[in-house]
Description:
The chain is of the alpha/beta class and 285 residues long. The protein has 8 helices and 12 strands. The protein has helices at residues 13-21, 57-71, 91-98, 131-148, 172-189, 209-224, 240-244, 269-283, and strands spanning 31-37, 80-86, 105-108, 113-118, 121-124, 155-159, 162-166, 193-196, 199-203, 227-234, 251-255, 264-266. The relative contact order is 0.20.
Amino acid sequence: MDEPPVPGAHDDALAAVLAFAGPPDLATRRCVRLVALDFDGTLAPLVDDPSASAMTPAARAAVDRLAGLAARPAAGDGDELQLALVSGRNLTDLAARSGVPAGTYLVGSHGAETGRVTAHGVDAVPLQLTSEQQEALGRLREGLQDAVDGRRGAWVQDKPSAAVLHTRLSDPEDARAAVADADAVARRLGLHAMHGKDVVEIAVVHTSKGIAVDRLREQLEEADDVRALVLYAGDDTTDEAAFAVLGPDDLGVKVGPGPTVAGHRVADADALAALLERLADALDG
């Protein structure tokens, strides 16, 4: 069944991406175009085993091409391109699964971890928790483990600043019960539970993909005295926070079905890859 129309989301994504690649109305100020992409469900199809996730061949080709364009020095006062992945995965896992080229910014754990790929690995910003946050993280992990005990298919993933309940392999009754228990743990600890596709992530630091995108924009603008325009693409409810911080000159692309505040939608990872290839064509012209 086709996804019903969603207010604010329309299908002229190609025209929008070509406009995004066109000359911005910025007077004499240079521009950097930040292409920030979610990973799972956006470049890589969702799978039952997260360790088996991989970009589709078309997505891999599009990402590598954009990274190549980003690596080229801008001519004179020309505009620049920057590539970033923004994911719920922890930074180490995101780097390993994505294998993106040097120069790419990485944002893991919904913004709690940041780094940049270099020729020698990932130059990561150290994540430091306070003693109170470390204590809360321990209690959180214990609470989520209690939530999955005796519930087939439910499991807990540990992250440096969070714990995640996974229910993709659970039957509906066990999934509902585990999610309810996870929400109760979050309330008891005074933490926010982020609900995604068959996951509930609870972090001991305040973060979101929207906060992460804003920080990336600010970092780029402050470093080179440019204006940053952002293209963000994602598939999950957690990506809505990133769509929400986009401005009128930015571009949000929802991948797949579901309500969204993004202005545009594509069907899947390969459709997004085709869109990114057209962006590369326009920027490489």
